[in-house]
Amino acid sequence: MAKQGKKLQDAAKLVDRTKLYSVDEAIALAKETSTVNFDATVEVAFRLGIDTRKNDQQIRGAVVLPNGTGKTQRVLVFAKGDKAKEAEAAGADFVGDADYINKIQQGWFDFDVIVATPDMMGEVGKIGRVLGPKGLMPNPKTGTVTFDVTKAVNEIKAGKVEYRADKAGIIHAPIGKASFDNEKLVENFKTVFETIQKAKPSAAKGVYMKSVVVTTTMGPAVKIDAAAAAK
């Protein structure tokens, strides 16, 4: 761990913590300062001027990254009959109903995202206490409770990411891998940035985007000039 700490300290020296970087500069610098010996995830964090205790200032949704995330998501679909066949045809990794609910109750979690048809939500609700804390509960706001299972599976496989403001008003979202071309990461960043901008609650007062930073797994944070990025 000491070796990793030294690497991070050296990487952090390359970042001017007082400076707001352009999107292009920030992404290039985040990649340059990646300290791990695997293909790190590049992530963006938005600190927003919202009061998440108020229902009209909750922010939650999903966005499809134009260049994907660099990770293939394993999709479990809860559906019956024709909708189950449709999910299989769309390329879902697992499709079923009560059988998979039983498996999850027994501790099976070899999947990344759950999609459920609305008629299955009564059953899925039985394992809500297990799924909720892991962030796996399907939700209409993120497009994972739907009868259009083909669209849902296709979008997840193409690189759909869910975002949600935590209690402190911070949203974390992956925008790809350090091995991606800078242009692809910039394009993914802009897609997420514009989505979060549009999600501003009308009830939010004052500065909306307080800070935007980009990081890689275990790498230093690089601050982005949000005002410039918005232009």
From TrEMBL:
<comment type="similarity">
    <text>Belongs to the universal ribosomal protein uL1 family.</text>
</comment>
<dbReference type="GO" id="GO:0003735">
    <property type="term" value="F:structural constituent of ribosome"/>
</dbReference>
<comment type="subunit">
    <text>Part of the 50S ribosomal subunit.</text>
</comment>
<dbReference type="InterPro" id="IPR016095">
    <property type="entry name" value="Ribosomal_uL1_3-a/b-sand"/>
</dbReference>
<comment type="function">
    <text>Protein L1 is also a translational repressor protein, it controls the translation of the L11 operon by binding to its mRNA.</text>
</comment>
<keyword id="KW-0689">Ribosomal protein</keyword>
<dbReference type="InterPro" id="IPR028364">
    <property type="entry name" value="Ribosomal_uL1/biogenesis"/>
</dbReference>
<comment type="function">
    <text>Binds directly to 23S rRNA. The L1 stalk is quite mobile in the ribosome, and is involved in E site tRNA release.</text>
</comment>
<keyword id="KW-0820">tRNA-binding</keyword>
<protein>
    <recommendedName>
        <fullName>Large ribosomal subunit protein uL1</fullName>
    </recommendedName>
</protein>
<dbReference type="GO" id="GO:0015934">
    <property type="term" value="C:large ribosomal subunit"/>
</dbReference>
<dbReference type="GO" id="GO:0000049">
    <property type="term" value="F:tRNA binding"/>
</dbReference>
<keyword id="KW-0699">rRNA-binding</keyword>
<keyword id="KW-0687">Ribonucleoprotein</keyword>
<dbReference type="GO" id="GO:0006417">
    <property type="term" value="P:regulation of translation"/>
</dbReference>
<keyword id="KW-0678">Repressor</keyword>
<dbReference type="InterPro" id="IPR023674">
    <property type="entry name" value="Ribosomal_uL1-like"/>
</dbReference>
<dbReference type="GO" id="GO:0006412">
    <property type="term" value="P:translation"/>
</dbReference>
<dbReference type="InterPro" id="IPR002143">
    <property type="entry name" value="Ribosomal_uL1"/>
</dbReference>
<dbReference type="Pfam" id="PF00687">
    <property type="entry name" value="Ribosomal_L1"/>
</dbReference>
<keyword id="KW-0694">RNA-binding</keyword>
<keyword id="KW-0810">Translation regulation</keyword>
<dbReference type="InterPro" id="IPR005878">
    <property type="entry name" value="Ribosom_uL1_bac-type"/>
</dbReference>
<dbReference type="InterPro" id="IPR023673">
    <property type="entry name" value="Ribosomal_uL1_CS"/>
</dbReference>
<dbReference type="GO" id="GO:0019843">
    <property type="term" value="F:rRNA binding"/>
</dbReference>
